[in-house]
Write the structure tokens for this entry.
Amino acid sequence: MTPDKEPSGAECLLRALKDQGVDVIFGYPGGAVLPIYDALFQQNAIRHILVRHEQAAVHAAEGYARSTGRVGVVLVTSGPGATNAVTGLVDALMDSIPIVCLTGQVPTHLIGNDAFQEADTTGITRPATKHNYLVKRGVDVARVVHDAFYVARSGRPGPVVVDLPKDILIGPAPYAPPSQAPHRSYRPVTEPDPAAIARAIDALVTARRPIVYAGGGVINAGPEAAALLTEFVHLTGFPCTNTLMGLGSFPASDPAFLGMLGMHGTYEANLAMHGCDVMFNIGARFDDRVTGRLNAFSPDSIKIHADIDPSNINKNVPVDIKIVGDAGRVLRAMLAEWRRRADAPNHAALTAWWRQIDAWRGKDSLRFTQKMAAGSVIKPQYAVQRLYEICRATGRDTFITTEVGQHQMWAAQYFKFEKPNRWMTSGGLGTMGYGLPAGMGVQVAHPDALVIDIAGEASILMNIQEMGTLAQYRLPVKIFILNNQYMGMVRQWQELLHGGRYSESYSAALPDFVKLADSFHATGLRAKTVDELDDVIHRMLAVDGPVIADIAVDPRENCFPMIPSGAAHNEMILGPEHADRAAEVTDEGLMLV
Amino acid sequence: MGLPMRDMRNRAHTISVLVDNESGVLARVIGLFSGRGYNIDSLTVAQVDRDSQLSRINIVTSGTEMVIEQIKAQLDRLVPVHRVTDLTVQGPHVAREMALVKVVSTGENRVEALRIAEAFRARVVDTNVGSFVFELTGAIDKIDAFIELMRPLGLAEVSRTGIAAIMRGAATI
């Protein structure tokens, strides 16, 4: 671009991205976005990672965003490029991940004519995004891109689509820097109301059986928020549980940590939620995986709910004290208010509550039995546990992504996270095929870190083409497949709820994952029995490049504890290790997913 | 303590939403209602301020207190939405709708239709040997009542605008 010439839409777009601090884009070219690719070719500030499928571009951007706290950027073409991205967009919407997705569009004069590779992208993505834009004039390019970044990262973060017709990308587009003025209409509340904070502390100071229930909102609020959460839990002496999305917001090794709660949460976390008298929900949304049967959810508690999105409050569970604000600011205000109170908490009651929690902990609900004799089949729980222990022993900064299913729950249960932003999993949407591309995005953001996708043999095939991306950019992501030859969670539900009729859940005709790795220029490893496991993990970690480790695990193993659909927290099914397993699934429960 | 006391009855609420007058904003609002399974009893939209490019959407919806609270919060988080006001909660307000009602009849029924129309202060905006088109403005229940009375008298077609609503007194949204 010569200084005296007005930039093209594509040049203006790249300048706006640079001013937004973008250093990498995940994308896939096509006819409508050729002007952007041409402009990318002529600059060095922004790196482009070429994925193999547009869905993977969005997941990669999610991995980048979740591991850095920054906005992830995607670039795809019109029509199929945009429609392929939709699953990733909904995934980011459900899990509140800031993404800006740039989509090409046919030239403005062809819109509505069923042109080649035309799709109504803003129409299709309207319910799939936090917001979307169709840019119809060159003069709007810079303003809309800046607006998109603001919307993506402000309040409850989410994905934003900017649809860019090809004539706008080619035609003139005067540049404008980001505006400092407040947004015209979207100004989410981040600072909590002091009166609500005071009421929350009133309830917590007098609590006899309190619990802190922290979710992904704490992670989205940045590492300071996680540090403040830890400080608050230590100051109060309360127990703390995390949602699937919140893992890492509180150190897993801390004695106050009860583990994850919900459908596959620990016995102590779920019973503490059920039996508490004051619940402090910070940055979680009372998801159905967490609450179980709503009319039996924590029946006797005062509920405090702090969330940056007012629409999350009183959505599923009516609460007593509502706090709207950023999780970090809420926690800072709560800490200050707690310290102002001379009247300390009820120590005697709290001691009795911890005694009760310790009794529940004594159940050891994640217990499993691994036979250690040579040739014994590997229990999936043991595989994750050894992976965790060996990774920890290396001392390397470790990031875990997952696919969706049993392996995801075992990863959540047996891999321990001490810091935020180290755990990337598809929580709300439950997208199989998430982990490999998300891991790519994490590795791009953290080139020297250890990035592992804990996968299942069925999920991994949903975006297996991204092995090509790993090879092209030498991204040393490790794919650790818990191979039980079944869509394990489907199989588990069929066993428990559908009379053992394993309809279409067997993973027939699987590829040889070692050869598959080889053909994608990666290293393939396999462990068939327990005596081979540690060696495979050590070798996997030693390879300076992408690896698929195919771990053959017990195909009959189920994921416990489990709150069956339609059951309450105190109606958990425990694993076969436990004599008192309990719980029946009701007809209403069978209807739920 | 337990659950806070909640009103579980369905009630109609009139909600006014001030939005940027941009393409797609009505689709966002309607998509929100259909996607989340909320009712729309009536919806109107029109630009109200040319200079600031603002449109006003008036929605009549019904639900429990918890659902209405959700609807307002969901509307408020839409990016082009400036302000959401629940007129039913805010206090006294005026809500008016216009309807065009076609009645096709002869003889005694025709005379009766005209008599009722006069009682309702409906205007005859088109007339023919065998038909009337009445124009009627009023609250929703007044228009409902008028239509019910016309039904046995040859009611043929109804076109309603949906409501425009505004607070009473000097207060504004």
